[in-house]
C-alpha cells in the first residue's frame, strides 16, 4: 500500500537514479520519517537528501560562519537575547502595560522578531509605517537592539544563514524537489529559488478543497512541474470513520482501546492531535499509566515528567526568594532524593513548612529552625541540614549571571533528583544539555527575576532524540507534522469546533494591517492553514483514517459542536458514539474502567457504595438536605468558629465580601473561607473583545488617568478642550490592552472600541455639567498594605454600634468636594436596575456606598482637618445608562449594624446557612453546588437551628431585619 508522499518520492528517485537529489521537506522530523519509511518499504532512494531549507543552507554557509567565530542561535538563546534587548529603559512601558519586562511579552516579541527577520523586514521599515506611534518606534528600537545583541554574542539565526547561503554557488548542485507544505518566508524562498534555478519539481496531491497558505511552497512555486498522487474516489479512498466521545480523555482512551484490544501493531499507528492543549499532556499521562511506548514528534514538555517537575519546582523556589513552603511541596511529592544524612524527605516537609528564612543585614540567611515550641529532635536537625544543603545550591539575591543559575539547576538535577527509570535518566540528560545551552548567553540579573524566565523556557517541549520512530512504539504528531512516517492507520483527535481549526488571532505587537504593509503573513490566517493541513492529510492517506471529536466538556457539562469540516464528512459517513463507560469489562484499559463496566446492571450502585464509602455519605447528606431544617448539611460547621470572627475588627474584610455575606452566608463561606473560585466563563462571546470585568477595569483606568491629568493642571472637565486628551488616553489604553489580551475577532474589537468611546463621551459630557465640584481623590485605597499618606495599611476600623465593630479594606473610585462636604462615587458599567428605589441599601444588599462613606470620614479624621461625607452612591458610566447617578446621604451607622450584626455573629457560631433576603442563585458561580437550597425569610424556622447559644435568636433578627 502506497501513501503520500512515498509514491511520488519513489518516482522522483527512479527518474534520477544516479544524480544527487535534494528534496526540501517541511521539518527535520518529516525528513527522518520519510527516509525511514522509504528504507522500510524497500524503495530505491540512493543519493537522496531529505532536508529542510535551513539544514541545506547550514551545510553550505555554516562552516564559513563557524570559521569566523559565529555559533548557531538556539531557541532558548533567542528568547534570552530578546529579553536582554527588552530590558533597555523605556521599551517595556511602550510595548506593554508593566514597568518591567514579563516572560509572556518576551515570548511574543521573540516570535514577532523571528518573523520580521525571516521576511527581510528592516527595523527602519517598522518606524516608517503610516500608523507610526510610540509602540512601533519602540518595537523598531528593540529590533535594532536585538540585531546588535546577535553581533555582540556572535550568534547567527536562520535569517543570517539564508542571506549568506543565497550568495554561494555550492547549493545548486544536483536536482531539486520540494513539498507543497514546506513554509518559505521571504529569505528562505530566495534561497530555495537560488538552489533550484528554473528546474526542479514539487510534491503535491489532488483533492484539497482549501487554498495553500501564501508562504507555502505550493503557493510560491505553483509553476513548477508536479509529482502527485491521483485524487481519491469513494472506491479507492481510505476507510474513513467518525467517532464522538464524551471529553478529551475519552477520545484518547477510545483510540488506545481499539489498538490494545485489536490486532493493530503500535508501530503502524500515528495518533494526530489538532491542538497541543489538552491532548499532549493527556496522551503522555495515559501512555505512562498503560505502559505504552510513545515517540512524540514535537517532544513532551519537561513538566510532564517527575524529573522536569522537580527542576521547575526548584526554580519556583528560587523565584519565590527561597520560600520553605515551595521546597516542602517538592518533599511531599517525593520529587527530592533522600540521603543517609537527611533521611526520607517526606518526613521533613512539616518542618520546612514552618521554617522561616531570616535575611541578615549582611545578606546571609540564618539557619532554618522550626518554631520554638517544637522539640529539637533528630528529624529537626536533619531538616536543617537538608535546607542548608539545598540553600547552598541557590545563589544569593544579588546580581548573578544566567549561567550561574542554570548551573545551579544542573547540580540540583545531578545530586538531588531521584532517577529510578531509564526514561528519567534520559530526561535529566536532555535538561542538563538544555540548561548549559541557555547559560551560553551571559545575561545578568537577580535570581528572583531570572528564575521565571528559565521556567518560561522549560515549559517548551524537549525532544528525546531524532531519527526514525522506534519499533513497537506509538507515533504521536501535531497535525502539521503528521503523515510522513508511512504508517497504515491514522487517528486524528480534537475535531470539535473549539479545537479545530482554531480561532483567528492578531499579533498584539504588530497588527494584521501593519503586517500587510510589511508583506508579512497575517496571523489570523492560522485556522485556514490548519484546515489546509487536514485536507492534505486526508487527501493523501491510503489506509484507515479515524476522526474523533468530543461532544461535551465533562468538567462543566458544556456541549460542543463538531468542526464544520467534520460535519461535511459526516454527511456521507456514519458517526459512531463512543460510550463514556465501556460495556465489556474485558475491553477496559485499566482497573477503573473495569470496575465501572462491572457496575452496570443490578446491584452496581450498592457495590460502588461499599467500595467507595464517601458516595454513601453523599447520598445521606443529600437526603438530610431534602428533609428541610437547618443543620450540618445546610451550612452549620458543627461547632463555633472564633477564628473567623469579624466583630471587633479581628479580620480584614472588603465591602464586597460583607455584601456577599448579606446576600448569602453559604456563598461567603465557599468563596472567602474555603477560598474556592467559580468556574471560568462557559462560552466566549464572539461579539466582545473585553469581558465585562476587563471592560469595567478599562474604564476605571481611563477615568483615573484623565481626571488625574486635569487635577494636576488645575483644570475642570470641558467637552471641546478636553475631548482630544480623553481620546488620546483611550488610544494608549487600548494599545496596552492589546498586548495583554489577544484579538480573536476584528469585529469584536471594533464593537468594544465603540462601546469604550461612547462611555468616554458620556462621562465627559456628564462631568462638564458640574463645574462647581472639586475632584480631590481617585482610587483612594486603604487596607491590605494600601495607604493614602495616613496610617491605614491595616484597614479602617468602623464602629457601627456598641454591638458591631469591623475592620474594612477597599478602594474608593472617586472623592469629590462640594462646599464643606465630600461626595463618594463608585463607577459601575452595568445596569442600574438593582439599585433603584427609595432605599439605596436595599435591605443590606448594597452596603459598599455606606461603608465607604464611614471609612472616608475616618480617614479625614486621621488627617486632622476632618470632614463630613454628605452623599455617596454609584455613577453608571456605561453608555446605555447615559451617565446616571444614584446617591443618598450616608445612613445612620446603627441601621447598617442592625442588618449586618446577625449574620456576622452567626459566622462566629460556625453557621453559614443558605439564607437570602432576595433570590441570589441565578447568577451565582456556585449554583451548580447548591442551587435550589436557598431559604427566604418566610421559609426559615429558627426552632430547627442547631442547639447553639443564641443562634435561634440571631435567625429571628435576620428574618426581621
Which word captures the global form?
Answer: globular
Rg, rounded, reads 33 Å
Biggest sheet character: 8 strands, mixed
Classify the secondary structure makeup into a structural class: alpha/beta
Mean pLDDT: 81
**Unreliable segments of 5+ consecutive residues:** 356-376, 786-790
Beta-strand percentage range: 5-15%
Helical amount: 40-55%
Report the span from N to C terminus: 81 Å
- Count helical runs: 35
Structure summary, number of beta strands: 24
What would you say this structure looks like, in words?
With 961 residues, the protein is of the alpha/beta class. Helices cover 44% and strands 12% of the residues. Strands 8, 9, 10, 13, 14, 15, 16 and 17 form an 8-stranded mixed beta sheet that branches. Strands 18, 19, 20, 21, 22, 23 and 24 form a 7-stranded mixed beta sheet that branches. Strand 1 (21-24), helix 2 (28-40) and strand 2 (48-51) form a beta-alpha-beta unit. Helix 3 (53-67) packs across helix 9 and helix 30 (719-740) runs antiparallel to helix 31. It is globular, with a radius of gyration of 33 Å. Mean pLDDT is 81; it is low at 356-376 and 786-790.
